[in-house]
Design goal:
Aminopeptidase; 5 helices; eight-stranded mixed sheet; 8 strands; single chain; alpha+beta
């Protein structure tokens, strides 16, 4: 049985082999991938990414929830999302969202992030949920701040990302800060 999380306007579901073309859409969109710290440079990497996500979804001791965001009425693919539990610090998880252009700046990102915070703290009993973004990705930084995550710091120029040294901004929320009072 496939895993899913329902938001106000979307459903987050396990990826299936039918999502290969959807992930290719994201991987081939230079503007979307500009800040994404995963390498989907060719069809082999895209296929391996999808295979790993599907394999993880079948594990009884699942740690990664790499999910497609879909329109529940049409099944249309809106983007790729995840909440991944840290293998060593099982009380911590990272969240991430990559939406297709038509779904950006529409409130879908906030909807997804809030759903992941609820899932992480209420269902998984996590102590900490965090997100990170390229310091140049101001939209992602604003999204995390809007949803109540606290800016924790920047790791400067720690990895080469396609065409620049990436500095990464970290945001986090602790269980005792959830739910944020102003969100």
């Amino acid at each position: 049985m496939a895993f899913s999380i329902t938001t106000e306007r979307l459903v987050l579901t396990d990826l299936t082999p039918k999502d290969l073309d959807n992930i290719r859409l994201i991987a081939r969109d230079r503007e979307l991938m500009k800040y994404v710290l995963i390498w989907l440079e060719n069809d082999e990497q895209v296929a391996a990414f999808l295979r790993n996500a599907i394999d993880e979804s079948l594990r009884k001791d699942r740690m990664d929830y790499v999910l497609a965001a879909r329109n529940p009425a049409t099944g249309e693919f809106a983007g790729l999302t995840f909440i991944e539990i840290d293998r060593e610090l099982k009380s911590t998880a990272e969240v991430g969202i990559v939406l297709l252009s038509d779904y950006c700046n529409t409130g879908y990102g906030s909807e997804i992030l809030r759903a992941y915070l609820a899932f992480g703290f209420e269902k998984l009993s996590l102590h900490r949920v965090y997100g990170k973004c390229d310091e140049q990705n101001l939209a992602s930084a604003r999204l995390m701040e809007k949803c109540g995550l606290t800016y924790e710091g920047t790791i400067r120029e720690h990895v080469w990302l396609r065409d620049h040294w990436r500095s990464t901004r970290y945001y986090g929320m602790l269980a005792n800060e959830y739910p944020p009072k102003y969100v």
